[in-house]
Design a protein that fits this description.
This protein has 613 residues and is an alpha/beta fold. Helices cover 51% and strands 8% of the residues. It has four domains: 169 residues, Rossmann fold, CATH 3.40.50; 63 residues, Helicase, Ruva Protein, domain 3, CATH 1.10.8.60; 113 residues, Zinc Finger, Delta Prime, domain 3, CATH 1.20.272.10; 178 residues, no CATH class. A five-stranded parallel beta sheet has the order 2-3-4-1-5, covered by helices on one side. A three-stranded mixed beta sheet has the order 7-8-9, sandwiched between helices. Strands 6-10 form a two-stranded antiparallel ribbon. Strand 3, helix 6 and strand 4 form a beta-alpha-beta unit. It binds zinc ion.
Amino acid sequence: MAYVALYRAYRPQKFSEVVGQQHIIKTLQNAIQLNKVAHAYLFCGPRGTGKTTLAKIMAKALNCEHGPSIEPCCECDICKGIAKGMISDVVEIDAASNNGVDDVRALRDTVKFLPSSGKYKVYIIDEVHMLSPAAFNALLKTLEEPPAHVVFILATTEPYRLPNTILSRCQRFDFQSISIDDILKRLRIVAEEENIKVTEEALHQIANSAEGGMRDALSLFDQCISYSVNPEITIDDVLAVSGNISYQKIIELLDSCISLDETNAIKILDGILREGKEVPRVINDIILFLRDLLLFKNNAYLEKKIMFENEAFISLSKKVSKDIIYKWLDILNDANNQMRFSTQKRAFLELAILKMNDNEQNNFINLSNRLEALEYQVSQMNQNPNAYHEVKKQETSYVPHIPTAEELSNMMNNNPVVEDTPIVETPALTETKPIIPVTIEEVNDDSYITVKDVEAILNHGSRETRAKLNEIWQTSSYNQIIERYTSTNFTIQMLFNGNVVAASKEAFIVVLQDTGFCNKVMLYQNYARIIEMFSELGLNIKDYICLPKQTWQKILADWKSKYNEANPQPQLEEFSINVKKRVIPQIIEENNVDEELEKINELFGDDIKITED
Ligand SMILES: [Zn+2]
């Protein structure tokens, strides 16, 4: 016997077997009982919600040898014939493939004949919105003066595409998406009758993936049965077949975003994409997950999902504020819109994830990261008081997919221009002292880069340093030292995706895509790595400033208009720049190190108390 797909085998044959749509069933049954059957029904609603199934049951109920009755017997020849599609009085037309005026005229010619075996001629026109305008006109003629023995049931997923003249002649029913609970009930029955073992978690995943469509749910279940080699179907089987990401993976990903661990976030994302998941699907799944997270936090969900009882999910919901969820949703929606016409979908998703790692608001969580960094630095200072750029190194051999500067500029649809900045030579600073960055000050979130900071670099320009930096930027992809840094720190790649627009002997200005990236590269943890890298590259760079393009252009215009030979160091107009300043390393005397260390330890101890509250 040939294999019958589950959704066919388990297609409801009676009104009582239909899942959901109870108000529609009730109305149809009342009409039959009261002998008030309409001549035209319009069944609207999402796919797989039972429109054609109910249309066929209605056809049986009207034509059953024991009817018309509110429930077909499903035993008589007519009921059986209709189920098999062998009764000429019940005509099923797929408007998607028969959408011409001739098709409708042919149909109209048969309308006038009386039914041959049943009591009604029932015309079920599926996807009726696909009919051509001429075909609609032809149909309209029939709907205007239908013979008493004719019932039209039009089904569509897109009722707004129907002419008003048609809509006004139909009794309209809007089918609702089938609830997850209803889909689950049905799936459990099917599993039991087919003697298929499946975990509860897997069933929930099927029901969720089906998005309210019973046919999709059963088709997916069918595919899982064929796919799974295990004695029991698991959630992994379902995820592999459906292409969805598991919420466990999403939780891991978002957890990394909260901890500002972008390397791990990108690594998890890479793992997901390696499994063959498509980028738009991944974004969509994360967006749906965040929606569920919001509903859960607001206690506003209608249906309890299995993940709402998951410990990792509950713990994540406690760690992330609604503000951040909204911000993440914005970032993902933007990425979704921007990637639509791009071939670089993956790069957009990665950038979105990086932006999600930039949560200034999430101070509570940041604090634990800061403490960890401080702890490490204090231990470093105890060993070597002169060490100033040692930070916790991320031990990983993972190499993320890094968008090249070209990919980035393609994505943004504009090519960043390297500005030609006038250069003024100034004498270098005469003395260098060991410096120790005092990271406690980083907690001060209110300090932003000022125009004065930019001015200082512009007014002390060094052609030599800028030429060296430009060369490093141009050859960055071949440089082994740089590669060693970028392979473990995605932020440094962001730096190289920007453009160096000005430099003094010891500092430079780099223009990046947006403020979020600037803040990321300016973070103290990244600063230390970047300075260390330049030192390895043989450059005495002590500082840098990241600016978004517009800000830079505004400052440059001002500088250009004021700069002349008489005044080579103009004073620029102040305005607020939305990029945070990383902490300025304090220059301290070597013999003061112990004292400074004590101070740090003191503050450090206080910080620990704060977190325990
Ligand atoms: Zn019957």
